[in-house]
Amino acid sequence: MNNKTVTAEFKPIWNLRITLITALVLVLVAILAISIGPVALTFQEIVRTFFAMEGGLTGRERTLLLEIRLPRVVLGALVGAALATSGAVYQTVFRNPLADPYLLGTAAGAGLGATIAITSAGTSFNPALPIFAFIGGSAAVAATFLVSGRYFSNPGVLLLSGIAIGAFASAIQIYLQQRNTEVLRPVYSWILGQLTVSDWNNVLWAALYIFLSLIILFRISKLLDGLMLSDEEAFSLGISPNKIRIIAVVAATMATATAVSVSGLIGFVGIIVPHIIKGITRRVTNRALPTIALAGAAFLVLADLGARTLIAPAELPIGVITAFIGAPFFLFILRTTKGGLK
Predict the structure, then answer these.
(1) What's the whole-model pTM score?
(2) Of the four listed, 164, 304, 313, 326, which is most buried by Cβ atoms within 10 Å?
(3) What is the CATH number of domain 3-336?
(4) pLDDT of residue 39
(5) Domain locations in the chain as residue ranges
(6) In this predicted structure, what is the pLDDT of residue 70?
């Protein structure tokens, strides 16, 4: 048995280990995020409270754990998983390593929906905001497909259509902001990303759509890498590229629109995480998606921890943290891929 055969036999085990290590990192980061804050909570207290054991937290500390920190961490993990996985899928669909989840106008559409909700209520605490943002992001992508017409199977045409729709939605958003200057601050706070209004209602409805989207993407993951080939080559392998492309974009968009609706616009997660995981694992998209989802969850939970502790008692928008890390990383990817556009 030669060395190549041995490597091939051990590769699946190594891939599984990487996924398990990523899951463990997520658990450790989540515990760290739950325990750190103005009121410190110990690991023993957290475990005893979760399992209803003697010596668990009571009173305000219990409320702090179960109703404030825990839903925020869970929501951050959901949003991170959604953005990272969607980014990896978009990069495959568009054959572009610089593609991100906001490519087809999702961000601009969601921003417009959130602006409409905020300007209507005059406050950022409008309970309808996630619904408006979700509808806005979904409508923008639907409009992108309509504008691209029968050329939607062409990634370049779809990309340009998304840019046009995004610009149009942004123009309307700016118009509404200027007409309602008294709500500029809550609008910009939402645009920069935040998990400060997370509660179990937001977590539950976001989890429903994000898990559904991820399940769909995981189910078609073995076919995704066929989209990196020409359509003729994909057909020869028994893959229907148009069908897979539509399913992938719709599922990734649903995950992205849901994430944006509950967290605002958090950039670069969909670019940073997929490239890091693919670089570590050397795996193609179909085998890397679960690991990318777990890593995205851990990354955003850690970024949110930094956002609420770096300048405590004040909070930084989480989008500032991800942009601070992501912008240099984006330039690095841009340089190493010679522009990323082929």
Answers:
(1) 0.87
(2) 304
(3) 1.10.3470.10
(4) 87
(5) 3-336
(6) 93
Q: Give dist(CA 270, CA 317) in Å, integer.
A: 18
Look at residue 1 in the predicted model and tell me its pLDDT.
43
52-106 residue pLDDT tens: 888 888 889 999 999 999 999 999 999 999 999 999 999 888 888 888 888 888 8
pLDDT over threshold 90, residue 201: no
With 0-12 / 13-18 / 19 or more C-beta atoms within 10 angstroms meaning exposed / middle / buried, residue 228 is middle
pLDDT at 167: 92
CB burial string 61-94: b at 16+ within 10 A, e below: eeebbeebbbbbbbbbbbbbbbbbbbbbbbbbbb
Q: What pLDDT does 152 receive? A: 63
Burial of 340 (0-12, 13-18, 19+ CB in 10 A): middle
Per-residue DSSP letter, 39: S
CB 79 within 8 A of CB 259: yes
CB neighbours (10 Å) of residue 221?
A: 21
Q: Taking phi first (over 0 means left), then psi (-120 to 50 degrees means alpha), and beta for anything else, what does residue 56 get?
A: beta
Amino acid identity for residue 313 in this structure: P
- Which residue has tokens 């300007």? 119
Mean pLDDT confidence for 207-225:
91
Alpha helix segments (H runs only) across 94-183: 106-121, 129-148, 155-179
